[in-house]
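Before a colleague's protein record goes any further, I have to sign it off. Would you go through it and say whether the fold makes sense for this chain? Take the sequence as given and treat only the tokens as open to question. The record follows directly below this note.
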Amino acid sequence: MTFKTPDLCDEFEAELGKTVRVVAPMFQRYGGRASFSGEMVTLKVFEDNSLVREAFAENGAGKVLVIDGGGSLRCALVGDQLAILARKNGWEGVVVYGCIRDSGDINGIDIGVRALNTHPQKSIKKGAGDRDIAVTFGGVTFNPGEYLYADEDGVLVSGKALC
């Protein structure tokens, strides 16, 4: 699927702020895909990536994982091994409100990644967190089952498929 977020903003201008929401420009771009989109699966975790591994182990065809990591800059929630697992299972991409690691390796993997930054330290693994709940960051609420579009110009969230 080919799209440009500026074109989507123009096309759905009447729905901006309602059905179509623009995420604050806060993310760095990683991964081998400059743009990606899909139906959202959400996680709310804090410095624990156990649920990330569980999600990426599932079939992710047509899906994007949205991880609310509380904005923590103290450890990474996704590394190269999880990115490889995600790609193997068909995930389109991941948005991390937190950090990733192994960014050089992740940049060579055919998956879209947005994260606040990088951090070399791995997370704890206690299995704590929630899945498929509404999460809010970047001025936007991300609801499971809605759609996310990310490219070089930004990240959009929509209550319906836009293209």
The mean pLDDT is 97. Residues 5-158 form a domain with the Glucose Oxidase; domain 1 fold (CATH 3.50.30.40). The helical segments are 5-11, 50-56, 80-88, 103-106.
